[in-house]
TrEMBL record:
InterPro entries: Cu-oxidase-like_N, Cu-oxidase_C, Cu-oxidase_fam, Cu_oxidase_Cu_BS, Cupredoxin, TAT_signal. It is an enzyme of class 1 (oxidoreductase). Its EC number is 1.16.3.3. The lineage of its organism: Bacteria, Pseudomonadati, Pseudomonadota, Alphaproteobacteria, Hyphomicrobiales. This is Copper oxidase. It comes from Bradyrhizobium ottawaense. One of its GO terms (molecular function) is oxidoreductase activity. Keywords: Metal-binding, Oxidoreductase. Residues 83-192, 216-331 form the Plastocyanin-like domain.
Length: 443
């Protein structure tokens, strides 16, 4: 006997299978694959509402196809090999050939259908961090959907209800899968192209890894002691610069799926945080900053007027995060006589190198390193060693860049007389404390 409730239930099921049938009939869109580790040109819209596309540092945006009024994307979760910088490759898990996965771009109001194929050796899901979507599309394995088993493809369908910057990552064996690099960014452009428009729009996600020197696989159980601090799974000097035309209004969208916060600092300018993964910040609530902290599991987007030409360092302000694999066990030897130390150590280990008695500047130092690791501090600029690593790159603001030109313009040509310079001066002996205190303390 059919109860009314049973009848409705059946009808709903018929509806559901009809939707599935339609998708199957329409076939799954081809999955684009990326084999490059440098920033790909922006993907301009060919139809629909106009928007200024983003560029992803050392990454790309996922191509899509239109199917009726649905925008269809295809993500493939799979093992990948990611080059962190020249000289170091790591076996990660990612999407469509790289880790992190491609940026997904759409427009507010778009209906999107995202196919996710699992080519990992274990199940996965995709969670759409920060997006306002139906609960059943939220991608939390076990809670809102069955896990996607290896070899299977699932479909996520939802409307991009609000514009902004979001992230995607698995909610399925999450600790392992995120520690292996499974993540990416979602940018939803406002439907109104006049809403807070910018001239250049950059996006990247921060992640951290513990990859012991000479090895190729992150230690996924590591909780705190990471040694690779990455922007889009790249470290300095492997991170793309941000080429900017003088006078451009620039947006930088930063996601943090690492296990600690990162205070991100831009030299030479002040900026305002204009958007988080929760939405746009009203202008009345914005304030000027030169460093903004990006908490774990959050997005911060800042807008900056690039009105100061030059090569401007852009980096995490935790100084250990602008280093590559480092020996954290190294003792602080500043002030220790190098000669005595070298003698003492030399007796024990004849090939050793005493370092650090005047600091750790390593510009002219060469140390043997195992294969597949990177120097702690590296990189060379036009004036010498830069001695950075990890989360460091350069915003290159130039007068003569074309509108959509994102190629590295090379080192800045400093106008004559604008660079700090050496003067003739007598040998600067350290200033001694005067014999008598200059102020008497009242007791
Ligand atoms: Cu940091």
């Amino acid at each position: 006997m059919f109860s009314r409730r049973g009848f409705l239930g059946t009808a709903a099921l018929v509806g559901a299978s009809a939707v599935q049938g339609r998708v199957q009939a329409a076939s799954i869109p081809e999955a684009a694959h990326m084999d490059k580790v440098v920033m790909q040109p922006p993907l301009h819209p060919v139809s629909g509402p106009d928007y200024r596309p983003v560029v992803t540092l050392n990454g790309w945006s996922l191509p899509f196809r239109m199917n009726g009024d649905w925008k269809e994307f295809h993500l493939v979760a799979e093992p990948v090999v990611r080059e962190f910088a020249e000289g170091m490759k790591v076996n990660l898990w990612g999407y469509n050939g790289q880790s992190p996965g491609p940026t997904i771009e759409a427009v507010e109001g778009d209906k999107v259908r995202i196919f996710v194929t699992n080519r990992l050796p274990e199940y996965t899901t995709v969670h759409w961090h920060g997006m306002i979507i139906p609960s059943g599309m939220d991608g939390v394995g076990g809670l809102t959907q069955p896990h996607i088993q290896p070899g299977k493809t699932f479909v996520y369908e939802f409307e991009m209800r609000k514009s902004g910057t979001f992230m995607y990552h698995p909610h399925s064996d999450e600790m392992v899968q995120m520690a292996m690099g499974m993540m990416g960014m979602v940018v939803v452009h406002p439907r109104d192209p006049n809403f807070r428009p910018v001239d250049r729009d950059f996006v990247f996600v921060m992640s951290t890894y513990r990859v012991d020197p000479g090895t190729y696989l992150p230690q996924v159980n590591e909780m705190t002691d990471f040694n690779m601090w990455t922007w889009n799974a790249r470290v300095f000097p492997g991170i793309d610069p941000l080429p900017v035309r003088l006078g451009d209004k620039v947006r930088v969208r930063i996601g943090n799926l690492s296990m600690t916060n990162h205070p991100i600092h831009l030299h030479g300018h002040s900026f305002a945080v204009t958007c988080t993964d929760g939405g746009w910040i009203p202008e009345s609530a914005q304030y000027p900053e030169t460093t903004t902290d990006v908490p774990v599991g959050a997005v911060r987007v800042f807008d900056v007027l690039a009105d100061n030409p030059g090569d401007w360092a852009f980096h995490c302000h935790k100084s250990h995060h602008t280093m590559n694999a480092m020996g954290h066990a190294v003792r602080n030897l500043i002030g220790v006589s190098r000669k005595d130390l070298a003698k003492a150590v030399g007796k024990l280990a004849p090939d050793s190198m005493a370092m650090g008695s005047t600091g750790m500047a390593m510009g002219n130092m060469e140390m043997p390193a195992p294969d597949n690791t990177l120097p702690m501090m590296t990189g060379t600029g036009q004036f010498g060693p830069i001695e950075m690593g990890g989360m460091f790159t350069v915003m290159k603001i130039r007068e003569d860049l074309a509108r959509d030109d994102y190629r590295d313009p090379g080192p800045y040509k400093f106008p004559q007389g604008t660079v700090a310079y050496e003067v003739e001066a007598p040998d600067a002996a350290p200033v001694r404390q005067p014999g008598k205190p200059t102020h008497k303390m009242k007791m």
